[in-house]
């Protein structure tokens, strides 16, 4: 069972450069959340703050009753045991084979026998489809396999929170689709709390239960997937639908002249909201909501064609 992450009033800066300020959100226990944002908005910094690698200037991050923004190093060490992290490039040790890479956290943080370690490592490698590749070195396998090996290592201590830092980075669309399905299947199996930083719009539209968007040094919106995919908020609408018209420009924010030139332009209609990706076995995850439930509960009319099997294809 995953655990809740409650973030309140979080602000982080490096010198005079403010990365983001007054970020508040709650990542629900056991759910899949995606954090989006233009490049350079501090998404990876946010992940590092959540795991205590970076201290925020102000605010709190409460996990299991402990504020990791202000707790002792001893308490932080204990809270970190709840986490598994998949880094952008997999962060494999190049001189170790995949088996030893995955076994590394067990050897460092537990006193388990090699027999027990082998059972656990092979179980996790089976989860990510890497059985038979355990003797390969990271340099001998594809980027997608390295990602899966990194995910096996992130899962080896049975974490209650798993952070994914751009898991689709460097992957082609087919491998990204396989990885997305793997993430959904894993969440169904282990029921941990997942937080994914990504730029992939199809991932954001089809995988998570909740979506957040960092923009212009603040959290523009965070909430259920359907809330953001039906939103008329300009920056949310522009980013989630990959549109050129809106406040986001090549340098994150458009200047006054660019915005004036767009004045009066008719925005394209919102695309249909696709069906959320389901586990391979067809059994809904505990946190998965029926299609259209949020829209019905809040009196929102979704775009035409929403929640149909071909809606995801139509938005690619």
TrEMBL record:
Signal sequence segment: none
GO MF term (any one): ATP binding
UniProt entry keywords in alphabetical sequence: ATP-binding, Nucleotide-binding, Transport
Spans annotated as Disordered: 265-316
Domain of life per record: Bacteria
Pfam families from the UniProt entry: ABC_tran
ABC transporter domain mapped to chain residues: 5-241
PANTHER family linked to this entry: INTERMEMBRANE PHOSPHOLIPID TRANSPORT SYSTEM ATP-BINDING PROTEIN MLAF, PROTEIN TRIGALACTOSYLDIACYLGLYCEROL 3, CHLOROPLASTIC
Name this polypeptide is given: Phospholipid/cholesterol/gamma-HCH transport system ATP-binding protein
The species this protein was found in: Nocardioides zeae
């Amino acid at each position: 069972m995953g655990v809740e992450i409650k973030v309140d009033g979080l602000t982080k800066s490096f010198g005079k450069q403010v990365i983001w300020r007054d970020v508040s959100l709650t990542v629900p226990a056991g759910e899949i959340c995606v954090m989006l944002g233009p490049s350079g908005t501090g998404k990876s910094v946010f992940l590092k703050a959540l795991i205590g690698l970076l201290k925020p200037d102000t605010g709190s991050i409460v996990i299991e009753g402990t504020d990791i923004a202000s707790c002792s190093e001893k308490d932080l060490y204990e809270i970190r045991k709840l986490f598994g992290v998949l880094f952008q490039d997999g962060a494999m040790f190049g001189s170790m084979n995949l088996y030893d890479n995955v076994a590394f956290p067990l050897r460092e943080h537990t006193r388990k026998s090699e027999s027990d370690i082998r059972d656990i490592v092979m179980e996790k490698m089976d989860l990510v489809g890497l059985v038979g590749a355990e003797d390969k070195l990271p340099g001998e396998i594809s980027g997608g396999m390295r990602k899966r090996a990194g995910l096996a290592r992130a899962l080896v201590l049975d974490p209650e929170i798993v952070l994914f830092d751009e898991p689709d980075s460097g992957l082609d669309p087919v491998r990204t689709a396989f990885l997305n399905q793997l993430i959904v299947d894993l969440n169904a199996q282990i029921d941990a709390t997942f937080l994914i930083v990504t730029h992939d719009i199809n991932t954001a539209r089809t995988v998570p239960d909740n979506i957040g968007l960092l923009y212009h040094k603040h959290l523009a919106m965070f909430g259920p997937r359907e809330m953001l995919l039906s939103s008329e908020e300009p920056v949310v609408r522009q980013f989630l639908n990959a549109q050129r018209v809106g406040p986001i420009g090549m340098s994150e924010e458009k200047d006054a002249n660019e915005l004036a030139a767009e004045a009066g332009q008719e925005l394209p209609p919102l695309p249909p909201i696709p069906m959320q990706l389901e586990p391979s076995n067809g059994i809904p995850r505990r946190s998965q909501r029926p299609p259209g439930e949020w829209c019905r509960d809040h009196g929102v009319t979704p775009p035409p064609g929403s929640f149909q099997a071909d809606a995801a294809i139509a938005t690619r």
